[in-house]
Every structure is written in C-alpha cells, then in structure tokens.
Amino acid sequence: MNCPVKVRHQSNFYGGFFGGKVSVEQRIQAVKRYLNGYETMFEIAEDIGVTDQVVSEWVRRYQKNGVETFLKPYIKYK
User: Model-level pTM greater than 0.85?
Assistant: First the structure.
C-alpha cells in the first residue's frame, strides 16, 4: 500500500489497524525497546506509527503473558 506521507493509519486500542498492520516482530521489538528504558512509549509509538496507548497495552499484555501474547490471536470477550 503506497500512502501519501501525511496519511496516518488509525489504530484501535489493541493495536489492530484500519488500513495497516504492525507485525508480531515489530510489537515484540517495541516492547523490548520500552523495557530497556532508553525510549519513552511516545517515542516508540511515533516511530512505528501507533499511539502510545497501543504500546502501553502491548507492554501490559507482554508483562502478563510473555511473548505468547503476540503469537496467539487475541480475543476480547465481552
């Protein structure tokens, strides 16, 4: 998909995208970058094109379930 530079894809809270997608590897790397303590969630989120709330959710899920949280499809139950 070739989007103009100024177009930003919108993400939902859990990192799913409307018009784009962040790979499992990118999610894991984003979490590790944050946990290393050298970058803020905002910096990481801006770099990969998501919100800092999305990165926060990834970190929370990673801390609770480890890498497995990104390897299995995520199901949100009501």
Answer: no
